[in-house]
Specification:
The protein is globular, with a radius of gyration of 24 Å. The chain folds into 2 domains: 29-222 and 399-504, Alpha/Beta hydrolase fold, catalytic domain (Rossmann fold, 3-Layer(aba) Sandwich); 229-398, Serine carboxypeptidase S28, SKS domain (Four Helix Bundle (Hemerythrin (Met), subunit A), Up-down Bundle). Residues 1-26, 33-40 and 44-52 have low confidence and may be disordered. It has helices at 44-49, 110-113, 115-124, 145-148, 152-155, 160-177, 192-203, 229-241, 243-260, 265-272, 282-298, 306-316, 323-335, 350-359, 382-393, 401-406, 411-415, 474-502, and strands spanning 20-23, 26-28, 56-63, 76-84, 97-101, 127-131, 185-190, 210-214, 422-426, 445-449, 451-453, 456-457. It has 18 helices and 12 strands.
């Protein structure tokens, strides 16, 4: 039996809203090092002239605080970034630079997982750069992760604006060191990284000529998008695959609570679902199932299509015909039949810890479940959310800051005369597409959603920037080709403008 459960742990940003307490027994969770020898990019001459590896690791001495002039603001930390020189046409030909913005996780796996960059680099003769987000991976200030995450005083430098300023300094330093001042920079980012890429293009247009923002839910703030939108799409995805599967899941929650209320009910559920630890509360099972369904919908990638896998398992009912037997059949179909399935010990990752702070400070995304989904209704309670964050960190979230700093309200009216050269790509079966830009804002602020045919939507989270496969459907190939064509147009126009500025055609990229 194929095991699907851990297929997506390496992917660029899975958003986590941790423990948003909606009632006393339910918390809504949204489905997401080795020693090194430091070197600087200034050793690049010998690095390139010898036998360069595909990917090299570098560190930039990054300032702690870009926006204040207090003495402690001038403290520095080593920010990690990776470079692949293999395909680059070089500074003399003004060959482009593709920069991937690391999201809320270490950057280690990005050169392999972001297939779009490597696969398209030969076409563009592009230098590939991957920059790690501060406070993740090895880009940690204050000397250690323990000190960096000690309290709100040290975590206060951990936000998206600081991260964008970090990226700006690294890009400037790379271009200066490589004598590549005339090389155009194109940004690539997925999910949170896609949000950062689009925001960077708006905040630092002098440093990047365009951005590909894949699955970037920039409108999931400040009531621009309905809090119910994410779970509405998850439910729609399941219902489109199988209405009987949808109905089984819908009816399962009350059945779980019914069994749990019986004598030895939790023991019965623990045995029925082959839990890794005995259940102490029924919501432990419900939350695991909820997480499984949302992850399957968000990462419903071809050719596996995990939503179809789960629903096929539920509808086939291999382990019995009652509701919970059918649900367990879906769990086994998705996770495999070799190990325990539910309530396994939680391994808290740095992504979990870091994103918890980010959502308790500026990234306040109000997720809720409405009354017409396959899930139990759960409204978003901002007051309770604020109380929880204050209790944990001693500071209150700022739910309006993202739209204040980056915008979002009336986005077309605002950006059509201001922004340019951003691709907003979305898989329409991705629950996060509900908060993405799905329609062109202007001629150069373009939406590239996935459409199978005129009557059918397709696509999942960040699929367009992941490695291609021989089995990729036609609509995915067409989406990537469209993105490449747009980027080619950006770069071609850049060379025309640069040549005109210098009164010479030598900047045309051949």
């Amino acid at each position: 039996m194929k095991h699907y459960f851990n297929l997506f742990t390496w992917l660029p940003l899975i958003f986590f809203i941790h423990s948003i307490n909606l009632n006393p027994t339910h918390s809504l969770t949204i489905p997401r090092l080795s020693p090194f020898q430091e070197k600087t990019l200034h050793d690049i001459a010998t690095l390139v002239s010898n036998d360069p590896k595909d990917v090299e690791t570098f560190y930039y001495k990054q300032v702690l605080d870009h926006f204040n002039y207090n003495p402690e603001s001038y403290n520095t930390f080593n920010q990690r970034y990776l470079i692949n020189f293999k395909y680059w046409g070089g500074a003399n030909s003004s060959a482009p630079i593709f920069v991937y913005f690391g999201p809320e996780q270490p950057i280690d796996g990005s050169p392999k997982s972001i297939g779009f960059m490597v696969e398209k680099a030969p076409t563009f003769k592009a230098l590939l750069v991957y920059i790690e987000h501060r406070y993740y991976g090895k880009s940690v200030p204050f000397g250690s992760r323990e000190e960096a995450f000690k309290n709100a005083n040290t975590l206060g430098y951990f936000n998206s604006a600081q991260a964008l300023a970090d990226y700006a300094e690294v890009i400037i330093d790379i271009k200066k060191t490589l004598h590549a001042q005339n090389s155009p920079v194109v940004l690539i980012g997925g999910s949170y990284g896609g949000m950062l890429a689009s925001w960077f293009r708006l905040k630092y247009p002098h440093l990047a000529i365009g951005a590909l923002a894949s699955s970037a839910p920039i409108l999931y703030f400040d009531d621009i998008t309905s809090p119910n939108a994410y779970f509405d799409v998850v439910s729609r995805d399941f219902k489109e695959v199988s209405e009987t599967c949808y109905e089984t899941i819908l009816n399962s929650w009350s059945e779980i609570d019914k069994v749990a209320s019986q004598p030895n009910g939790l023991s019965i559920l623990s045995q029925r679902f082959n839990t890794c630890r005995p259940l102490n509360h029924s919501f432990e099972l419900s939350e695991d199932l909820e997480s499984m369904y949302t992850s399957a919908a968000q990462y419903n990638h071809p050719p596996d299509y995990p939503v179809t896998v789960i629903c096929s398992g539920i509808d086939k009912a291999s382990f019995g015909n009652n509701i919970l037997d059918k649900i367990y059949s879906g769990v086994v179909a998705y996770k495999g039949n070799g190990t325990c399935k539910v309530n396994n010990p939680k391994n808290i990752s740095e992504t979990d810890v870091g994103w918890r702070w980010q959502t308790c400070s500026e990234m306040v995304m109000p997720f809720a479940i409405g009354n017409d989904t396959m899930f139990q209704p759960s409204p978003f309670d901002l007051k309770r959310f604020v109380e929880r964050c204050k209790k944990k960190y001693g500071v209150s979230p700022r739910p309006h800051w993202i739209t204040t700093y980056y915008g979002g309200h009336d986005i077309k009216r605002v950006l059509q005369k201001f922004g340019s050269n951003i691709i907003f790509s979305n898989g329409l079966k991705d629950p996060y597409s509900s908060a993405g830009v799905l329609h062109d804002l202007s001629k150069s602020l373009v939406a590239v959603p996935t459409i199978n045919d005129i009557n059918s939507i397709a696509g999942s989270h960040c699929l367009d920037i992941l490695p291609s496969k021989e089995s990729d459907p036609k609509w995915l190939i067409e989406q990537r080709n469209k993105e490449v064509k747009i980027i080619q147009e950006w770069i071609a126009q850049y060379y025309i403008d640069l040549g005109a500025l210098h009164g010479s055609p030598k900047f045309q990229n051949n």
